[in-house]
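Annotators were shown the component list below and the corresponding predicted structure, then asked to write short factual statements about the assembly.
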Amino acid sequence: MKVLVTGAAGSIGRALGRGLPGLGHELRGLDLVSEPAAGYEHDWVVGDCLDPSTADAAVQGVDAVVHLAGNPDEDSLPAALESHVHTTARLLEAMLAHGVGRIAYASSNHAVGRTPSGSELTTAVRPRPDTFYGTAKVAAEALLSLYVDRFDLGAVAMRIGTFADAPETVRQLSTWLSPDDAVRMVDAAINHPAPGYTVVNGISANTRGWWDLTPGRSIGFDPQDDAEGYATSIQTRPEDDVENAFVGGPHVTSDFVRSAF
Ligand SMILES: NC(=O)c1ccc[n+]([C@@H]2O[C@H](COP(=O)([O-])OP(=O)(O)OC[C@H]3O[C@@H](n4cnc5c(N)ncnc54)[C@H](O)[C@@H]3O)[C@@H](O)[C@H]2O)c1
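Structure shown to annotators:
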């Protein structure tokens, strides 16, 4: 399958560049940075996916879009909406114009970050963002749902936990998404014949995970890695209890409270 990966120079984009070609996918990368990441050397678009002509050129000839581009940190509300919602809209419009029918979107646990821990986190909980970043992810998910209902598109919103080579905190023993599982998740999201609009929890098969993996398995994402193998190397910290109290971990603390503008 020919796949456009936006934000291809970022941490998740680079992992997909290493893993997706081996599963038979031919990649085109899009990023603000000019140097192609490994796996994208033959097809690299430099630009901002907010820009209509960039988005238009980038989707031409692909079968699916994996939309990762965006600022993964907290920002003002307008900046977060532009980075996550407007870019998604720009790509969806370009996809419609060029008959591209599939998008896998890097949503986040922070879309439901204010959900308290204590019972299994399903993907049916109400949108409950913990930040403007999370609010923008909620809005981007809503936009995907709208376009799936209006047009002949399939969209998978992947609520990613903590993507990293290895977990580094007690919370991450629950929320870790390994690079190999990220590749498995995206492969499933772009290959499933008819996902409609599906939300999946994007974590590995962590022993301490408390997020429902059923929606992912329903589209063929069967995570194989487990953070527990790193547990003995992780130091406990005083902030662990606070970080484990809500889905969003540190994002629910007062450190992230700021003015919208
Ligand atoms: N890393 C995580 O643990 C995690 C967790 C949840 C969700 N996510 C989401 O996954 C996506 C990728 O995360 P990441 O950790 O790889 O981030 P990253 O910051 O490492 O990479 C993002 C990439 O996107 C590019 N980019 C940003 N805005 C762009 C634009 N308008 N047009 C083109 N390129 C643009 C940047 O140059 C960068 O290379 C983000 O949307 C993030 O919100 C990540």
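Statements collected:
1. The mean pLDDT is 97.
2. Residues 74 and 133 are 5 Å apart (CA to CA).
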